[in-house]
Amino acid sequence: MGNIVSISTIGQDSHRFGEPAGETTIKLGGIDIPFDKPISANSDGDVVYHAITNAISGYTGVNILGGEADKLCLEKGIKDSAVYLKKGLEYLKDASIIHCSITIECLRPKLMPHIPAMKESVGNILGIPASSVGITATTGEGLTGFGKGEGIQVFVILTFTKEI
After folding, report:
1. 91 by DSSP, 3-state: which?
2. Which residue, among 159, 29, 164, 3, has the nearest Cα to 96 in the 3D structure?
3. Which of 40, 99, 111, 150 would bridge 137 by S-S if both were Cys, CB 3.0 to 4.6 A apart?
4. pLDDT average, residue stretch 16-42
5. Measured on CA atoms in the order 146, 28, 85, 121, is the torsion positive or negative?
6. Mean pLDDT throughout 17-29?
7. By mean pLDDT, which of 28-32, 48-52, 92-96, 150-154 is the weakest?
8. What is the distance between the alpha carbons of residues 56 and 52, in angstroms, rounded to a whole number?
């Protein structure tokens, strides 16, 4: 039996909001959150799932967003970001995710009431307990466009274990 090592990668994604659309929802971390503006994206615009997918790509070296996801979205009409994330997970042949740390920057919507459901959703799709998913939300003191309400930015750090 070999040694077990831990490896961490970072993923990022951001999307701008579209024009106000009245009462609607946006998808974040696999759940629907009430909001008055849509996320401007080809897909459902789930920036949390996109940032996680990018962190997986950082480990595997396989470009899912902009590669595989473009084929699924633009050619097959699949808009569900969970499908892209699951596609990324298919490439994790020799590693296991043990922790996911997520930081979300936006002015609105207010995310605190939705964090427990987002942790549960992220944990379910990654196959880890919700207690192994950390989510923080910040306005960044309004220093960026995200903190001024123009969109949402997400950073993710994934920790993997792998036997060597």
Report:
1. coil
2. 159
3. 111
4. 92
5. positive
6. 90
7. 92-96
8. 6
Mention every residue, 6+ apart, whose C-beta is less than 8 A from residue 31. 114, 117, 118, 121
The Cα 102–Cα 133 span in angstroms is: 8
User: What whole-number distance in Å separates Cα of residue 142 and Cα of residue 148?
Assistant: 5
E strand intervals along 17-164: 24-28, 31-35, 95-105, 133-138, 151-163
For 100, the token pair is 């996911």
User: Which pLDDT belongs to residue 1?
Assistant: 62
- What is the value of pTM for the model shown? 0.95
CA pair distance 104, 14, nearest whole angstrom: 10
Query: How far, CA to CA in Å, does 69 sit from each of 40, 87, 147?
Result: 16, 8, 28
Q: Which residue has the tokens 């999307």?
A: 15
Token pair for 104? 């979300």
